[in-house]
């Protein structure tokens, strides 16, 4: 059977590292098994969902290379949800309940005071037809609850192993609100059945949900798929990540932080697994190495500083051909030798801009010892500057001035670049070229 997985974000916000990790795990499993990856847009909440967020999600996934084979939106499928709800009603598994939010709150308070778990008491199941008719006549609108079996539901989770949810300790979940709108639970099951989803991979916060949803799968005549629940991401300090997720939006990492897609994928594929975290430049490696068995059940720590370090290492491995277009777009395409010289100094690609300026100018030379710099200018090797010139030049200067080490090199770097640090001088020298070198030395 072909594996079919789905990633189901709600377009009520930007994609962040937490949901991309779920998307990536789905993609890696699909690609490794020759399966199908579905992007489902969970936009049943018509008020909070926006087209802009939906477009943003698609743009982010595309940028990351996590492209889907099929896609659909829940808002196109209300007829199917209505039909499924009717089916459950006909089976007596979806029942109307009329309690207001306040009444439910009160019940929960009493239960807590008695030391009981705050589970819905199913009072609505005892309503007579007359009582319901009276409520309806009053204009009171019911919400609709799914009647759980009260039995344990077990499955062999791809990540958590043997997992059991005692449905007797859960409230019958509300599937339809008073205003007729659907909560996430039922549409998701209907979609997973209709799309033929074989494997649901999502965050551990959905584990309890899965217990109820498995019963809904069976009630609708479907077969429950396999499940894999991933431990959630936490911050580097072990604290909750959710508050910080706003700043960990993919769009921001791309546009403000200059993070490469493979840096994000490298880190998110490996945190919380037994594999070492490394900088990968090709998603195929991540696909080949993927295994559910490698996932730990402990929360995975996400450290933005680690992302930056991996980003630098990903950048250093990119070839000129891979970055040429982007360098050109930022006006910093100095050719292959330029890329070779500056790549090891980059933390993000946009840093190439300042190195490009450093070669092309304008540069403000820093000259502290004019005599030494004049001697340097006089001793510059003749002819076109090459990769050998720096070695020759500093060799001659050492002889002539008796300087060595930092005293020998640093004034030259400062005069030629205006900076204390930067790319290898032997690579920079031919890029700056003879004319500009002499011009800067005589500034
Ligand atoms: N829209 C749901 C969420 O983002 C999907 C959960 C699921 O994968 O079933 O939490």
Describe the structure.
It is a single chain. The chain is an alpha/beta fold and 443 residues long. It has four domains: 1-76 and 231-317, Rossmann fold (3-Layer(aba) Sandwich), CATH 3.40.50.620; 90-176, Alpha-Beta Complex (Glutamyl-tRNA Synthetase, domain 3), CATH 3.90.800; 320-360, no CATH class; 370-441, Arc Repressor Mutant, subunit A (Orthogonal Bundle), CATH 1.10.10.350. Helices cover 47% and strands 12% of the residues. It contains 18 helices and twelve strands. The strands form five sheets. A three-stranded parallel β-sheet has the order 1-2-3. The radius of gyration is 31 Å and the shape is elongated. Glutamic acid (GLU) binds next to loops. Glutamic acid (GLU) is lined by residues 8-10, 42, 184, 188, 202, 206.
CATH class of the largest domain: Alpha Beta
For the biggest sheet, the summary is: 3 strands, parallel
Beta strand %: 5-15%
Architecture of the largest domain, CATH level 2? 3-Layer(aba) Sandwich
Question: Key terms for this structure?
Answer:
single chain; 443 residues; alpha/beta; Rossmann fold; Glutamyl-tRNA Synthetase, domain 3; 3-stranded parallel sheet; 3-stranded antiparallel sheet; 18 helices; 12 strands; elongated; binds glutamic acid
Q: Topology of this protein?
A:
Elements: E1 4-7, H1 17-32, E2 36-41, H2 51-64, E3 70-73, H3 78-90, E4 94-97, H4 101-113, H5 129-138, E5 143-146, E6 152-157, E7 161-166, E8 174-176, H6 185-195, E9 199-203, H7 207-219, E10 226-230, E11 233-235, H8 250-255, H9 261-270, H10 283-289, E12 300-302, H11 304-317, H12 320-329, H13 335-342, H14 352-360, H15 370-378, H16 389-401, H17 405-417, H18 425-441
Parallel strand pairs: 1-2, 2-3, 9-10, 11-12
Antiparallel strand pairs: 4-5, 5-8, 6-7
Helix pairs in contact: 1-9, 6-7, 9-11, 17-18
The chain binds glutamic acid.
